[in-house]
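Notebook entry, cofactor series.
This is the third protein in the set we're modelling with a bound small molecule. For this one the ligand is adenosine-5'-triphosphate. I'm keeping the input format identical across the series so the outputs can be compared line by line later. Sequence and SMILES below, as received.
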Amino acid sequence: MLDKILVVDDETSCRDSLRRLLEVWGYNVVSAGTGEKAMEMVHEHHPEAILTDLVMPGMSGIELVEKLRYEYPVPIIVMSGQGTIETAVEAIKLGATDFLEKPVEPGKLKILLEKMEETSELLAENRRLRGELRDRGAFGMLRGVSAPMKSVFLQIEKVAPSTLSVLIAGESGTGKELVARTLHDLSPRRRQEFVAVNCAAIPATLLESEIFGHERGAFTGATNRKIGCFEMAHRGTLFLDEIAEMDESLQAKLLRVLQEQKFRRLGGREVITADVRVVAATNRDPKKAIEEGRFREDLYYRLNVFNITVPPLRNRKEDIRMLATHFAEEYARKTGATVAGIDPAALVRMIHYPWPGNARELKNAVERATLLSAGATITLEHLPEDVIGDEPLDAPHLKLVEDTGLAPEEVKTGVTLPIGSSMEDAERSLITSTLEHTGGNKTQAAKILGVSLKTMHNKVKKYGL
Ligand SMILES: Nc1ncnc2c1ncn2[C@@H]1O[C@H](COP(=O)(O)OP(=O)(O)OP(=O)(O)O)[C@@H](O)[C@H]1O
Ligand SMILES: [Mg+2]
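Returned structure with ligand:
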């Protein structure tokens, strides 16, 4: 049931007559005289529906609709005076639910309000579904169930609808670029370009023209006009990767452009205005990079309006299982391979390993393992040497059970023997279960048991394993 309605109109008389009408019908009404005020009221009073005028000084009804659609999705009715029907249609395209002609006819308003009840329920359902997905560890293309990743998801959701600059920090391979893409995909700019520039991969002499473009003849070799990334990202998102690797003088120029939202192509006279949302990333610690004189402090403050730090994978081991499965499935989909799942012993090692190359290293390892396993279950022997490691793991890894949500029987790698077993029985059992744990890999089993490979071969022969 709709309860609270926000009425937005710059004319006091319109606002008041609507308020009286709605109050007679039993609604709880709040009102605002400008779009800006309406944005404040929305966050303060949480109305369940909005009725807004289109033509207002300052933020127009259209702009209000556009902003609310992402920041606060509720049903909106736009009210249009004569000659603004086209604008009303545009508002509907941008997400308004419906429109009413002014002066408002009570009968029509009543019908629309009933329709809004349904829309309101639908929108609430959408919000609930998105939240549920997030709880299950999927946020756009990002996966993660750990508390730090869920907090990253919430931060993305919060900042995506705005035009604020965002600085993403995090070690190499943690998923910074994917975070940037997700930000773009959840923003009102998502139908426009996402343009990525890797400042570390392009020679300093070419980077300026890559970003701002150049006119023909701007420098030796500039045989044609080139449109830069800034222009290409107009109305979209520009992703400046490895920002701290950018030349100091170019950092200064970038700062100026960000402040003025205007620039010239190299060798050009025309002043170009671009509406660009900038997202930057660095795998350095930004504060340290500033101290070292790599990252201009003023540019840092301009970009760091909102900061998202993606934690290293070793600090969110709960994500490893989900990511490994996700990467295996994604690889299978891409290549037409099949995956039969990951053996618990392999998973335990993957969770144990610190992944200095973070998600990217995990992704590479899983893709290789998927290929090597050729449709069978991924076992230890399919993993890189580094991941398998050479120190034995203490069974039953209760901490892993806690950390990762693995079922205890999955990490139970211990051996139980009845009283009365001989030493030989014990040895045989121990070797058998260790070999099971390593997926039949004798070298690995020998390492775990602290014997030579030769001894291992002899025992295997002796017990006929
Ligand atoms: N949480 C995640 N969910 C799904 N895929 C992920 C996640 N994190 C990273 N990836 C994948 O891992 C790979 C590396 O991620 P990405 O390129 O975004 O890292 P990065 O932080 O930008 O690394 P670098 O600093 O080296 O540029 C990509 O293929 C990406 O799709
Ligand atoms: Mg990257």
